[in-house]
Amino acid sequence: MPFGVTLQTKREMFFKSDSTASAGGGGGGGGGNPLGPPSTAPPAPPVSAPTSAPPPPPTTTTANPTPTPVTNHVNSNATNNATNNATTNNAPDAKTSVASIKEQLLTTKDKKDHKDEENKESKQAAKPPIKDKTNAKEVFRRQREVEGYVGFANLPNQVYRKAVKKGFEFSLMVVGESGLGKSTMINSMFLSDIYSNEYPGPSHRVKKTVQVETTKVLLKENAVNLMLTVVDTPGFGDAVDNSDCWQPVIDYVESKYEEYLNAESKVNRKSISDNRVHCCLYFIAPSGHGLKSLDIEFMRRLHDKVNIIPVIAKADTLTPEECQHFKKQIINEIHQHKIKIYEFPEEDGDNNKLKQRVPFAVVGSNVTTEVDGKKVRGRKYPWGIVEVENLSHCDFIPLRNLLIRTHMQDLKEVTSSVHYENYRCRKLAGGTTDNKSKSSNKPSCLTRSKNSVASAWNPLALMEEEKKEHSSRMQKMESEMEQVFEMKVKEKMTKLSELEADLQKRNETMRRKLETDMAELEEERERFEKERRAWETANNVTVEELRRRSLESISKEQVDGKDKGKKKKGLF
Ligand code: GDP
């Protein structure tokens, strides 16, 4: 491995471990330990840009800007002071540590290599630049430190300011039978009365059929606005026959994707509000007997449309052992039914700890009680108090941290790059938006890989597949048409043969009738001949003779008649 790469890798390892250590130290910057109790300090904004004096130019070659902890006050003076202090305090430390680590890392061989490398570089600098004839080759140069303060270190601040100005949107869906503590959980989570006496939770608005209702609340914390949309499903799982009760939920999720897709295709796409459902908390009843068929069916139908996080409701009704056993049972069933619940982006220590807590066993309460002189949110029982925000009592804190502090952005990204993208591609490919498509090239294959979102799919392969599908459809149509044609021809042939048979039959009957008539006539003729002969014998004269005589007499009469006429004419 060349020196530059080796050193860079080592440096990255060093800074990675350094930043991980600092991130684990508190909740600042949203990178806090998701399992830890909520610190009083909200996430720290990034360091503001130095206005008067730029930070001293870094002297080492490695100074990747390390995140600088600052106070959370919005007061700009305070921030500036904090920034300056942090810069002055941290910069030398960073330099020293970088220098010392560089020393440690540079072995004699490395040093030699380093010198060679520098010599090469200086030689290259002296040479005239090589012209890139093809313009297709990218030139990679070694990492360079700028001399002095240019200002791109301020880029994160620009993003931060823009994001704060724009505000944040998050849609959280809660699904589960009524009475499982969904509204109590939402109130506990955002420390506000999203559901109150004036606007009660879903169980108090139970409908006969499943409805999807949204509640929008603008939450403010340290000048950061969060437009929270809570989507609840009153009536879910409450009917005697719950078949298809997930359909309104699917319709709602897809309608939001459709809305977003339409907004994206408009001319003005500047301010598209994101109402897509970013997360679905699925509440499981604390039965201790695994998942119900409704739970399995719901998750199976929704898992490729929305990020599902399973939650065991009212965990205070289970003993710790029962709860652990119940969790194992649920996870086994989830694997068994190939349900894809929300996956954590990286398999680091914190995420692994979080993963082990899934499904989150939660307790909700809207009342505070006193424990050791401290006011805590909890449920008071004759035998003790269950504290909502106590990590050893339930998983409320990890769940809240995951949703709000550590993984909100990731939930939104997965929604956008996996679930929405699946929907969009299915839609654009002209297919149905259900999950029947099994093709590997179909957009429905978009899944989140272990560390990243696999958002790339092959459009050419998709086209090829569509072509194949089209030709197979055409073939099918052709064979169907042929079948229909054959059937029609067969029908016609049968009809014709029936007609022929009928005609033949009629012909036969007519022929037979004619034959009988002929026979009758022949009989009649014979009888007549017989009678004639008998008459001739009786009268001793033949009919021929009789005819001749009668003709003769007629002609004689005619001649006589003419003579008489002549005579009469002569008289006058
Ligand atoms: P929803 O219909 O799912 O919204 O349920 P609610 O939030 O209205 O809660 C129904 C009932 O359960 C209320 O009496 C709550 O006080 C109670 N409850 C809520 N969360 C918990 C919990 O974690 N444990 C226990 N034991 N009861 C709870």
From TrEMBL:
Principal place of residence: other
Q: Please report the name of this protein according to its UniProt entry.
A: Septin-7 isoform X7
- Which residue stretches does the UniProt record annotate as biased composition, category Gly residues? 23-34
User: Where do the record's region annotations for Disordered lie?
Assistant: 1-135, 429-450, 547-572
- Coiled-coil zones: 460-538
* Keyword set includes Nucleotide-binding: yes
Q: Where is the composition biased (Low complexity)?
A: 60-91
Q: Say which family it is in.
A: Belongs to the TRAFAC class TrmE-Era-EngA-EngB-Septin-like GTPase superfamily. Septin GTPase family.
Q: Which GO terms describe its molecular function?
A: GTP binding
Where can this protein be found? Answer: Cleavage furrow
Signal peptide residues are none
Record Pfam families: Septin
Keyword Cell cycle, does the record have it?
yes
UniProt xrefs under Gene3D superfamilies:
P-loop containing nucleotide triphosphate hydrolases
Q: Which organism is it from?
A: Hyalella azteca
